[in-house]
Amino acid sequence: MRMSLLRSASQHLRRRRDYSSAAASPERKVAILGAAGGIGQPLALLMKLNPLVSSLSLYDIAATPGVAADVSHINTRALVKGFVGDDQLGEALEGADLVIIPAGVPRKPGMTRDDLFKINAGIVKGLCTAIARHCPNALVNMISNPVNSTVPIAAEVFKKAGTYDEKKLFGVTTLDVVRAKTFYAGKANVPVTGVNVPVVGGHAGITILPLFSQATPASNALSHEDLVALTKRTQDGGTEVVEAKAGKGSATLSMAYAGAVFGDACLKGLNGVPDIVECSFVQSTVTELPFFASKVALLS
C-alpha cells in the first residue's frame, strides 16, 4: 500500500510540474474552422487537452456554441469560445497563431476526391479570404480534402490578398504517416511507439508514398511483397474506413488525432522547441511539382 501511495504522489507531482511549465509557455490562440463536424469535434477535444493552447476558438456554420460549451468544461488551460456563421468568422480568427481547417464535406462511398473538390474548394476559398483579412500571420493547417487541391487554392487566395508566406501554409498529411507507422509496426512486430516512417508525395491514392525503406527501426522480416501490400494499404486507408463504416462516415477520429499531432508540432515550433520535423504537403522545390509532401522542419 505504501509503495502504491508513493507512486501516486510521484505521478501527481510530475503532472503538476508539466502543467506549471505549460502555464509559463507563450499565449497561443488556436482557431478550428469546421469545429462542429465529424473531424472538428474530436479535434477540438484534443486541442483543448494540449497544454500549449491558451485560447481555443471554435467556428462553424452551425452548432458551434454547443460544442464550445461542452469542451469548455474540461479543466485544462485553454479558454474556449464558440463562433457561428459568417458574421462571427472574423472574431473567431482575430489574433490566431494557428488556424486548423477541417471544414467541408466528408468523403462518402463512391465519391472521388474530384467530387470532394467541387464542394470543398468554395468553402476553403471563403475561409482563407477571412484568414488573410483577420490573421494574416497565422500558421494554416489544411485538413479539408482533397489536400492536393485545397492547399494550392489557399495559396492563390493568400497571393491575391498579398499575405502569402509559403512557410506558413501546410497540408496536413500526418494521417498517412500515422497509418504507415501503425501498419508497419503490426507487420514487423515492433512496438509502434518507437516507429517512424516518412511519407512523401501527395495525399490521395497512389500519390501517397510511404518510404518503408527508411522506416525505423529497420526490419529484415518484411519481404518485397509485404512492403507492396503495406504501401497499398496506406494509400487505401481512407477507403478502408469509409467502407467499414458502411456509408455512415469517414476517417474522422484518426484524422482528428493526426491533425492534433501536427498542430502540436506547429505550436512547439512556434515556441522555439528545436528539432521538430514532420511530413507535410507544402510549396516545394524537391521535385518539379509546385507542391509536394516531404519532411519539413518547423521553426519559429
Distance between the termini: 47 Å
Determine the number of helices (DSSP H or I, runs of at least 4 residues). Answer: 10
Write down the overall geometry.
globular
* CATH architecture descriptor of the domain at 29-172: 3-Layer(aba) Sandwich
CATH topology of the domain at 29-172: Rossmann fold
Fraction of helical residues: 40-55%
Q: How many strand units? A: 10
Q: Walk across the major sheet and give the strand order.
A: 3-2-1-4-5-6
The CATH C-level name of the domain at 29-172 is: Alpha Beta
Radius of gyration: 20 Å
CATH superfamily of the domain at 29-172: NAD(P)-binding Rossmann-like Domain
Largest sheet, in brief, is: 6 strands, parallel
The stretches of 5 or more residues where confidence is low (pLDDT under 50) are 1-21
How much of the sequence lies in strands comes to 15-25%
Write down the overall mean pLDDT. Answer: 91
Q: What is the element string, with H for helices and E for strands? A: HEHEHEHEHEHEHEEHHHEE
The SS-based structural class is alpha/beta
Subunit structure: Homodimer.
GO molecular function: L-malate dehydrogenase (NAD+) activity
Keywords: NAD, Oxidoreductase, Tricarboxylic acid cycle
Protein name: Malate dehydrogenase
Notes on the structure:
This is Malate dehydrogenase. With about 300 residues, the chain is an alpha/beta fold. It has a domain at about 30-170: 3-Layer(aba) Sandwich (Rossmann fold), CATH 3.40.50.720. Helix 2 (about 40-50) packs parallel to helix 3 (about 65-70), helix 2 packs across helix 10 and helix 7 packs antiparallel against helix 8 (about 225-235). The chain is globular, with a radius of gyration of 20 Å. It contains 10 helices and 10 strands. Mean pLDDT is about 90; it is low at about 1-20. It has a 6-stranded parallel β-sheet, sandwiched between helices. The chain has a two-stranded antiparallel sheet with strand order 7-8. A two-stranded antiparallel sheet has the order 9-10. The longest helix has 22 residues, at about 1-25.
